[in-house]
Amino acid sequence: MPSFRNTDSTEYTSAYEPLATKSRPVYPQENYYIEQPNSPGSYLGPIDDSLPGSDKAPLLFKPFTVKDLTIPNRIVVAPMCMYSSKDGFFTNFHLVSIGSFAINGPGLIIQEATAVQPNGRITPGCAGLWDDAHVHKLKEVVDFVHVQGSKIGIQLAHAGRKASAKAPYTNHSESDFWLDNVVAPSGGEHLQWDRHHRVPRALSVEEIQEVVNAFGSAAARAARAGMDTVEIHGAHGYLIHNFLSPLTNERTDHYGGSLENRARFLLEVVRAVRANFPAEKPILLRLSASDLVEDVVDGPSWNLEQTIQIAKWVRDAGVDVLHVSSGGNTAQQKINAVPGYQVPFAERIKKEVPGLYVIAVGIITNGKQAEHILDEEKADLIAGGRSFLRHPSFALDLARDLNVKAAFSQQYSRGRTTHS
Questions:
Q1: Is 238 one of the catalytic residues?
Q2: What's the domain range around 175?
Q3: Catalytic entry in 43, 83, 238, 357
Q4: Which residue, 11, 40, 95, 268, has fewest beta-carbon neighbours within 10 Å?
Q5: Each residue of 159-172: pLDDT tens digit?
């Protein structure tokens, strides 16, 4: 296991050439902002104080603290791919998209899966953090979120055998893809995710260490951008999940076979990220708790019992919060997507792994449902994805469900009604 150190430096190096600064004047007035007396989404009291239980704040709208990160409520925007980048760069789209969440009250926003290597992107349109040049626009996004009084993290990822896929709404030329450099723990046509994905090749041990180092370097860049937290993506059939699951890891060296060996890559990534991100800031990890193939695949697969053991190991290695999902590792999965369908996974992990906070996700669509999950101690935080795409003000919708008067961004305060 190599040693790691924080690589934070003011001396950036990049493969990309910036535009000449004289091409656009810089006006300090453009950085002016309105102070927010309360973070959007903070609890201000009940909407109707005559209703039962209105004398206390619901758990969903109580502040939550882990390490030096304090958020005003327990609502998290889950990372969602936007396929809106070129060469990994963040753009004004990201500023507006993430900014729209920031002014509407979630406690924490986690930015989309962001590749730590160019061939770790899911598609050519995915975001990246493998180059120092990526920090500039990312910091602009972070700074905007912070002046709204909100908090932000970023999901660091490598797509593994699901990389070099077609973006859903962009036509890329063939030269934009990396047809022969889709990597996984093991290779071969039988490990192709489906006929629309590439045939992966197996990583060498040296290449594995390069990926581990890339996660550490990306964490250092996230720190330079001012991120409040980082989330390691170990779910949904991407590279870390590929190593963890016996369905996709056929290695016979010390990265395959036993659970300890299959977990080795993840634990090295966790240690690299922890060494390169400020110690006072928390680290999150997203895991799929199951491959969801128990009824359709013969032989061993990834399941909840293994996830519980992994959760204990990553807790000891430096992970503070586990974001619990499921599936994504094989096209043979069977998902019963009903409201709260992934919450039982989060509940088991929370009960069996003390000292590790847990985020629940999976069709949690209203305030009473979310509050029940917290009240029953099934999770510590609630995440949503598509709900925020439908309604960027989803956190304020949850507040209304629970008779909560939540803080609005001052510029939006005239939108408050007697029922909000």
A1: yes
A2: 44-415
A3: 238
A4: 11
A5: 999 999 999 988 89
